[in-house]
Fold ABC transporter permease subunit.
Amino acid sequence: MRHSRKLAGALYAAPVAVFVLVFFVAPLLLVGRMSASDWPLLAGDRGINLPANYEGIADNPLFWPAVGFTLKYTGIVVVLLIGLSLLLALIVADRRKGTGFFRSAYFLPTTLGLASASLLFFGFYSPAIGPLDPMLEALGLEPVSWLGTPTAALWSTVVLIVWKFAGFFMIILLVGLQSIPPDVYEAARLDGAGRMQSFWHVTVPLLRPALGLVLILSVTGSLLAFDQFFILTKGGPDNSTVTVVQLIYREAFQRFDLGAAAAISVVVLAALLVLNIVQFRALRKDA
C-alpha cells in the first residue's frame, strides 16, 4: 500500500519535474556551457575558451554604462511604484460607494501585455501620430521630443512602467491592508495615536511582508528590463538607454557571439541570486 502511494505521488510529480528539467535546468546548463565556449551564433560550438568570455565582459564598452543605467532605472521605478501603489491601495482600502470601480480601473493596465503597452505608448509619444504634441501646441507650448534625449527617454519609459504595474502592486498591498485586524487600529486610537502615527507605527510594520514582496518583484523586474526599451528607444539615443538584458541581446543577435552573451547572462543571474538572498534574509530578520 505504501509503495503504491509513493508510486502515485511520483507519477503526479513527474510532469512538473519534466517541465522544470526541460525548460529550466537544461537551458541553464546550456547557457553555462556556452559561457565557457567560443560559440558564434552561425558557426556553433568551437570549443572551450574559458575564461575569455568572462574576461571580455569588463572590456565591453557598453557593459558598465548598461549596468549604471539599469541600476538608475531600477531605483527610480522601484521608488515610484512602491509609493504610488501604496497610495492607491490606501485610497481603495475602505469599502464605500465606487471603490470597486476604482479598483478595477487602477488594475486594468495590468491586463495589457508589456509589449502591447509599449507599442501603445510609442504611438502616444510619436510626433507623427501621437496626441501629446498637438495638445502641447494647442496650449501654446513647444513640442517635446519624448524619446529623443536620454533624460526624456528614461522618464517616458518610467511613466509607461508605473502606469502598467502600479495597479498590480496595489492589489498585493491591498490584500496586506485587509489582513490587518481592525482591533489594532482601535487600540492605537485609544492610546492617542493619530492617523499618521497609526500609519507609521501600525500599518507599515504589519504591511512589511506585502511590501517585501512588492520590493522583490519590482527590483527583479526592473533589473531585467528589455521589452519597453527595445520597443520605445532601441537603446538610444546614443546607447544611453541600453539595459543589461539589451546588451545580452546585442551580443547574441547583432554581434552573433553567443559565448559572450551567455557569460553576461551568468553574471546577471549570479547577481540576481545574491540580491534576492540578501532581500529574503533582510525581510526574515525584520519579521
